[in-house]
């Protein structure tokens, strides 16, 4: 079956040309030695310690010297990042927790804030990057502000900074903080350098071997005045996520027609059902799994990343850099579910007549934890999904020293992300049969089908198309910045201007469905060991034969644009800042100061076709953002920090789009409408910290933070006139014309159910504890051990993605020829949505504990072998609902297996 996805050959060819040039030039300059220092944004102490321990030292120096509160992750060597996944590397930083999709990190939450509150930059400019979900958590294409870190291979990056407090020179947008990523550049390591690495990954659930390769070549020429670097990282990944789900629990009287089928054969009820809901029969109040189902999510993933960096340094006073990055993430999925309909449904297929035989009720009398049924109808869902995400960035920057006291930095860049997803979903309906489930022994269910044969094609009676659609999200950003810095004796003054032009374009299309006989288009389940490694019963079943469906012309890839649901949101921002940095002596202590203010104007444009007519709504707002960072060097080893800032995060794009509004001309109501007039979230942030660098390469630190959100968003009922931009659409609507002049939008107020700003306020506060130390106080081999640990506590109103407690712990052993480390990451349960679906007060995700292992052996100065284990304990991922308050009702229960990597890396 075709995937519909091709890697962008023209873009890759450009990078390959640069690599060929580097390789041909290498022989002429290989013997040259360079004495110039690599240009970087921060002066970092040169340390002889290498490898993982060396990367910790460099990160510690960067943190110590920073004006603001900042943590960094450094590459162990050029093109060698500590973790295989960017998000999983960032989660080692205190205050960071991640969410996973299909067994790998995708989004981050910083200090308790959901992913959209963290701003992400690449090589100095804000970048958009999005893909779609891989697992049962959802498959929506990311059209939000949240950054999908799984788009990029970790081998592409040399450094990542996590800015936790604001300065005036840091661009606005991240109340939680800013993640700055940097790809490798030739002047990072002057002279000729080339590395190649290859890894084979084996997953014990898929039982397949996947390749992962990376190559980097870098050189400097003409007395180190010219430099060029090329790198490429390619990987394949086979994902198998399987488990058991319920598609949420719900009270019986709220499902379908709210009744059981034939209850005359219900002879056994263990426990006492509660009649708390007021139904005629107490069993109609019971919370039951809406669709108890076996889940399989399979994905063949391909990722490629390419970077090219060209640098020109005509003199010690000038440096010009061109960074180009291209990345593609391709997913080809086949997802299968078997689900049972237990309660009478008002749904296609006449799901009526289910016969309950026995029930077991929990001690509260509200939950049906086990049951036996006859005449149950199954739906067998097969999903074909293909998606790809393509990212391109071009950044041209220049650093110019105009005089001994005046520095000029300029930058212009363009970035775009194209994410496309195609989904075709079929349901096969079964003949009625026996079914039993039992949730009493754990989070998943043990099930039984009696004598019913799920592999008999004759038991599949018809097919229904549930979804046939295409979604595409295109994100772009144009950036231009100019910064001027004056250097005084013990101070500097910076000022700058920044312009951004961002746009998110969401388009969707609908396909057609042709009826067919499922018995003629089914095939056996792809795995005979379905459910291995789980304490639940998963029974294989027949699935749709997508290849045959496409071959016979039933499955097509033609889509009609759904213009009513498509939208475009654009933002143009212009910012100006002034910043002062200075050193002051207080007694015998040095006080490093940073003061500044940032002004930004934001113009919002929201566009959509409403009733076949183009509508455009434009709004703008201004923000003043003062900031202060103080670092007092109490002694040579102790730094006390105090920071204050006003920060902002712009509204989620879904809150701004105006597609598909519904106008009630007789009820005077408006629903399903965004609000482009929203102002951003605003926060007053205070940080206090104490850092003790008690030994070389060692630190103990505590940081306390408090973010007072003074402007936030909520959805409320508002009485007001309809925005003037919609009047022509309403006047042209035949339904309005039939009621006119009743409901005239120019004079009649309408009841809007829309997102609005509020000033109710809430706070997010907490503290971080960090400890890092090599065990050099021991003798001999014990001195090669070391530890990195941190703990974060966040206290706030329950908000999406917030885990009250999280910790990271890494124990490492490292010497010149070999080393190993084990890392543990744990976070508390966290909120997914409030309210949850189907009557749940909340939906939450279980906080997993992930254990990873990494080791290396240096066979020679050039050749290194490695062995790594990801998700050593094959952690269970679980989503649950809280019912009417404090219940624990499993929605999804799954695992993805343990991943093993064996690799080699050679440096030329």
UniProtKB/TrEMBL annotation:
Q: Which residues form the TonB-dependent receptor-like beta-barrel domain?
A: 425-872
Q: Which CDD domains match?
A: ligand_gated_channel
Sorted alphabetically, which NCBIfam families does this protein's record hold?
A: TonB-Xanth-Caul
The secretion signal range is 1-31
InterPro entries, alphabetized: Beta-barrel_TonB, Beta-barrel_TonB_sf, Plug_dom, Plug_dom_sf, TonB-dep_rcpt-like, TonB_rcpt_bac
Query: What residue stretches are annotated with the TonB-dependent receptor plug domain?
Result: 63-178
Please name one Pfam family that this protein belongs to.
Answer: Plug
Question: Can you tell me which family this protein belongs to?
Answer: Belongs to the TonB-dependent receptor family.
Q: Which Gene3D superfamilies match?
A: TonB-dependent receptor, beta-barrel domain (2.40.170.20), TonB-dependent receptor, plug domain (2.170.130.10)
- Example of a GO cellular component annotation carried by this entry: cell outer membrane
**Which keywords describe this protein according to UniProt?**
Cell outer membrane, Membrane, Receptor, Signal, TonB box, Transmembrane, Transmembrane beta strand, Transport
Q: Does the keyword Transport apply?
A: yes
Species of provenance: Alteromonas pelagimontana
The source's superkingdom equals Bacteria
Compartment(s) of residence: Cell outer membrane
In terms of one coarse class, where is the protein primarily found?
Answer: membrane
For membrane topology, the record states: Multi-pass membrane protein
The name this protein carries in UniProt is TonB-dependent receptor
């Amino acid at each position: 079956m075709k995937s519909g996805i091709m890697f962008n050959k023209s873009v890759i060819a450009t990078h390959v040309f640069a690599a060929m040039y580097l390789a041909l030039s290498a022989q002429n300059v290989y013997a040259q030695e360079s004495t110039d220092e690599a240009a970087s944004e921060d002066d970092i102490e040169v340390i002889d310690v290498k490898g993982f321990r060396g990367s910790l030292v460099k990160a510690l120096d960067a943190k110590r010297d920073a004006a603001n509160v900042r943590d960094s992750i450094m590459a162990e060597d050029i093109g060698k990042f500590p973790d295989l996944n960017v998000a999983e590397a960032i989660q080692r930083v205190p205050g960071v927790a991640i969410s996973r999709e299909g067994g790998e990190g995708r989004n981050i939450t910083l200090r308790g804030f959901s992913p959209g509150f963290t701003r992400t930059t690449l090589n100095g400019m804000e970048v958009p990057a999005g893909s779609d979900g891989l697992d049962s958590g959802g498959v929506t294409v990311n059209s939000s502000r949240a950054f999908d870190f799984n788009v990029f291979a970790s081998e592409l990056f040399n450094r990542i900074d996590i800015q936790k407090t604001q300065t005036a020179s840091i661009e606005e947008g991240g109340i939680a903080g800013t993640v700055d990523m940097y790809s490798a550049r030739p002047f990072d390591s002057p002279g000729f350098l080339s590395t190649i690495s290859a890894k084979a990954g084996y997953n014990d659930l898929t039982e397949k071997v996947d390749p992962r390769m990376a190559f980097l070549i870098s050189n400097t020429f003409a007395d180190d005045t010219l430099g060029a670097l090329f790198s490429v990282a390619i990987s394949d990944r086979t994902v198998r996520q399987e488990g058991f789900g319920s598609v949420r629990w719900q009270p019986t009287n709220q499902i379908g027609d709210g009744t059981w089928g034939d209850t005359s054969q219900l002879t056994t009820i263990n426990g006492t059902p509660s009649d708390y809901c007021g139904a005629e029969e107490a069993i109609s109040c019971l919370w039951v799994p809406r669709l108890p189902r076996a889940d399989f999510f399979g994905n063949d993933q391909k990722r490629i990343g390419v970077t090219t960096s060209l640098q020109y340094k005509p003199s010690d006073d000038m440096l010009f850099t061109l960074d180009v990055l291209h990345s593609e993430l391709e997913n080809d999925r086949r997802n299968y579910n078997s689900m049972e309909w237990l309660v009478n449904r008002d749904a296609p297929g006449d799901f009526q007549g289910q016969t309950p035989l026995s029930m077991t009720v929990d001690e509260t009398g509200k939950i049906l934890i086990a049951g036996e049924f006859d005449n149950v109808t199954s739906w067998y869902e097969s999903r074909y999904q293909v998606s790809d995400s393509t990212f391109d960035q071009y950044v041209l920057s220049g650093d110019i020293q105009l005089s001994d006291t005046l520095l000029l930095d300029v930058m212009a860049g363009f970035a775009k992300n194209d994410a496309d997803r195609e989904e075709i979903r079929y349901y096969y309906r079964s003949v009625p049969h026996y079914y039993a489930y039992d949730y009493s022994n754990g989070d998943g269910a043990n099930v039984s089908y009696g004598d019913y044969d799920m592999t008999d094609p004759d038991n599949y009676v018809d097919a229904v198309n549930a979804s046939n659609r295409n979604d595409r999200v295109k994100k772009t950003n144009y950036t231009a910045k100019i910064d001027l810095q004056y250097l005084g004796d013990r101070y500097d003054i910076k000022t700058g201007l920044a312009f951004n032009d961002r746009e998110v374009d969401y388009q969707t299309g609908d396909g057609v469905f042709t009826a067919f006989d499922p018995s003629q288009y089914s095939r056996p389940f792809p795995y005979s060991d379905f459910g291995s490694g789980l304490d639940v019963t998963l029974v294989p079943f027949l699935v749709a034969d997508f290849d045959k469906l496409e071959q016979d012309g039933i499955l097509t890839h033609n889509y009609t644009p759904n213009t009513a649901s498509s939208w475009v949101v654009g933002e143009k921002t212009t910012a100006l800042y002034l910043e002062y940095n200075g050193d002051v002596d207080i007694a015998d202590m040095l006080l490093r100061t940073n003061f500044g203010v940032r002004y930004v104007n934001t113009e919002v444009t929201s566009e959509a076709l409403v009733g076949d007519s183009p509508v455009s709504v434009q709004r703008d707002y201004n923000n003043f953002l003062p900031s202060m960072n103080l670092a007092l060097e109490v002694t040579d080893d102790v730094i006390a920090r105090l920071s204050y800032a006003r920060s902002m995060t712009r509204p989620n794009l879904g809150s701004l789009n105006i597609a598909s509004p519904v106008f009630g001309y007789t009820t005077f109501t408006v629903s399903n409408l965004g609000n482009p007039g929203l102002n951003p979230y605003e926060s007053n942030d205070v940080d206090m910290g104490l850092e003790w660098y008690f030994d070389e390469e060692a630190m103990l630190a505590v940081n306390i933070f408090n973010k007072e959100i003074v402007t936030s968003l909520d959805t409320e009922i508002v009485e007001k006139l309809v925005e003037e931009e919609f009047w022509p659409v309403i006047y042209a609507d035949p339904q309005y014309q039939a009621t006119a002049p009743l409901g005239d939008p120019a004079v009649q107020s309408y009841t809007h159910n829309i997102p609005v700003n509020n000033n109710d306020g809430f706070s997010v506060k907490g503290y971080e504890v960090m400890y890092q130390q090599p065990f050099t106080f021991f003798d001999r081999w014990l001195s090669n051990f070391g530890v990195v640990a941190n703990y974060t506590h966040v206290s706030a109103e329950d908000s999406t993605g917030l885990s009250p407690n999280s910790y990271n712990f890494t124990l490492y052993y490292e010497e010149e020829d070999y080393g190993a480390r084990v890392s543990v990451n744990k976070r508390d349960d966290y909120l997914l949505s409030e309210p949850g679906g189907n009557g749940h007060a909340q939906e939450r995700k279980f906080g997993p504990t992930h254990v990873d292992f990494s080791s290396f052996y240096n066979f020679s100065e050039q050749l290194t072998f490695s062995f790594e284990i990801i998700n050593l304990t094959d952690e269970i991922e679980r989503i649950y609902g809280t019912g009417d308050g404090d219940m624990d009702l499993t929605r999804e229960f799954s695992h993805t297996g343990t991943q093993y990597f064996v690799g080699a890396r050679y440096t030329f």
